Each structure stands twice: as C-alpha cells, then as structure tokens.
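Dear colleagues,

As part of the handover before I leave the project, I'm documenting each prediction I ran so the next person doesn't have to rerun anything. This entry is a single chain, and its sequence is reproduced below.
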Amino acid sequence: MYADDFDTRKLALTSDFKPECRKNKSLPRHRPGEKFLKGPIPWGWLSIAGSLSGKALHVAIAIWLIAGMQNNPTIALSGKVLNGLGVKRHAAYRALAALEEAGLVSVTRHNGRSPRVTINDFRRTDKQEDQIH
C-alpha cells in the first residue's frame, strides 16, 4: 500500500460519536496516598454545618478530614488544609465561630497557634429537625 492509497477520511469521527465511559457499579475511590474524607459523618451534624453562612461547611469538612486522618476528635485546624479548600484566614475565623455557636465544635484558641477544635457529639432538637423538613 502506498501513501497515496491511504484515505484519511475513513479515520474521521462521525458527529454521532460518543466516547465510551467505563461504568462502575461502585463509587470512585481515592488512590493510594491521596486524601479522602473519612466517615461516617452524622447527617444532622453536616446539614447544620451546611445551613450556616459563609465557609462554615468548608471548614467543617476540613475538620472532619483532619480528624479522620488523625483518628482523633480533637485536632489542630491547619491553615494549609483550609487554603486548599479556598478558605481565607478571616473567613475561617468567622466560620469556626459559627460552627462553635451552633454547638457542632468546641474551640480552644491560643495566640500564634492553630486553634484546637473538638468535634461535638451533636443531637438535633425537635425544633431544629422541623426547620430542615
């Protein structure tokens, strides 16, 4: 076969071409060495964090990420993790205060150090449950 006999039009994709996606029957998993969010996370706890203003949900997820990695409900909240979620320092202060006011976490603050955050075992009141539905 000579180069002149080769028809490149036969290789062209038709307009109805759609690449095949591998259909998994399970959820995507993290790769070795990648961070992941460890659960279970109580839905009531998470839904209250999500209902708070600003970056409260972002900070809540960061808290659970670090707690899961350290297997400890009390953690030092790192600015590095928050930066990775797009949370600036002052937004993190406000979000942490909102989480604390909602009763989701307890915070110990020290000048010049990361705040120590403890995840509280939070149970909704009937009034809070009615607000969600």
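The chain has a mean pLDDT of 86. The CA atoms of residues 107 and 117 lie 5 Å apart.

All the best with the project,
I.
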